[in-house]
Each structure stands twice: as C-alpha cells, then as structure tokens.
Amino acid sequence: MSSISSRSSYVFAAACPDQPGIVAAVSGLLAERKLNILDADQFNDHVNGRFFIRVHFTELGDRYDVAGLRVELSPLASRFDMSWSLHDTSERPRLLVLVSKLDHCLHDLLYRHRNGELRADIPMVVSNHKDCYQLAAWYGIPYRHLPVTPETKARQERKLREIVEEERIDFVVLARYMQVLSDEFCTTYPQRVINIHHSFLPSFKGAKPYHQAYERGVKLIGATAHFATSDLDEGPIIEQDVVRVDHSLSPEQLTAAGRDVERRVLSQAVEHVVEHRVLLNGDHRTVVFRRGG
Fold this sequence. Notes:
This protein is of the alpha/beta class.
C-alpha cells in the first residue's frame, strides 16, 4: 500500500459570507469521499462578515482528478456562495520573471527554484537589459532580451503578453523590473502579477531612495510585495518586512540592507502565491495563510 505522501494532494481555497456550518460541511464532504485533510486554515473577518478557508488534503481511497473533484465540490460552494479554487499540488505553477539591471531578487528566486524550495517552474527570464543574462544562464534558465523605449513600450508589452500566453504562464514576477506595466497589462492578468518595492514610498521617490533615507536618518528599512494593479505600487499587499538600522550605516550599507529585505520579501510572497495561500479580501486587502500558521 502506498504512503499518504506518495498520493496526489490538493488545495481547496475559498471565501464566502461568514455563516455557521462551513467547516463542518467542507470536512464532512472530504471525509465522505475518503479524502484525508493534511492541514487546514481558516479566518473569520468579523469587520466585513467574510470567511476564508484553505484545506490541503490527499486521497485515501478512490483516485480523483481536479475536474472530478470540482464536480464534487460545486454544490457545496454554491450552497455557501463561495468564491473558490481547487489545485492539484503536482501541477507546478509557471512563473515568468521580469528583471532590469539589479539581480538580487532574481538570484534569490533562481536559487530557491534550483534547490526545490520554490514549488514552481521558471521557463524564462525576460529583461529590458542584458545585465542578468549570465546569471540566468548559470541556472540554466532561458533569457529573453526585450529592450524598451518610450516609443517601443506598447510593442514590447505586446511581446510580453505573447510570451505569457505561449509559455502558459500562471504568474508574472517583477524582480526589480524598473518599467511601469500598463493598466491594460495589469487588468488582463489580475492577481497574477507580483511586484516588489522598498517601503519608503511615497516619501523617497526616484533615484537612490536609500541615499535619501540616509539623509533623513531613517531607523527602519522595509520592503513590500504586492499584486500589481493600475494603481501604481498600491495593489493588495502579500508580504512585508522591515530591518532596523541606525546612524552607523553608510548609504551603501543601507542599500545592501534594503536589497536583502527586498529579496526575502519577494521570495516569500511568491511562495505564498504558488502554494495558493493568498486569498483576496475585497479590492485592497489579502488573507495570507502562512506555513505552520
């Protein structure tokens, strides 16, 4: 007999109006179908009257596929007016990573990908510069150079969309991609574009934000990862972190500390998303079920 770890497993994630009986209904249906719950998380948003649930489960009896499981779960989802999704964990999400010149976020993502920490596939890296080509090549990832100017921006973005469709991309990761994506691109792929930026906005904009922070004597440096929307740098937040700094750090040391927190926050956000741990709560907020949470 095969072990539980060798069987197919699935993630069911849902949001709906808060009401009695949701957990009992979900766990009861899974038990009736001889599906074993490996871990489960839930959250009651008492302010907005919304309920969120994520259940990771596996087969004990008959083998299922995602389509068959969706048929089994549909009546329950309709009963509770759920927005829901179901994923086979053996189907790894496909990521398109966009980068410009800075490589710290790209390096961290590719390292985690190579070591198996990031449960996703990266079929390609795209950049508007050639600087990160050797890094991608070292990891064995194809690299596509798509230069962009104000005059060619629309054409370059059309090529990006072609790549997304041709490569069957699930999520686009902006690993310090220093180009603003159009409203059209963001609305075409809602909750599928993940961005990272330092948390000095809106105070320190433009070039050398860490040098500006040094001049102001900041005591905290942070980063924010979020879904990209038509509102620049204001999409639903997925992950954030900060590091404490002091007067002894030079502008270059502040920059290094900032890059470190940026790469960690982006990789953590991508991990949350590809493991289907992020649920949208309204237009501007998220619920994130962390590992071991």
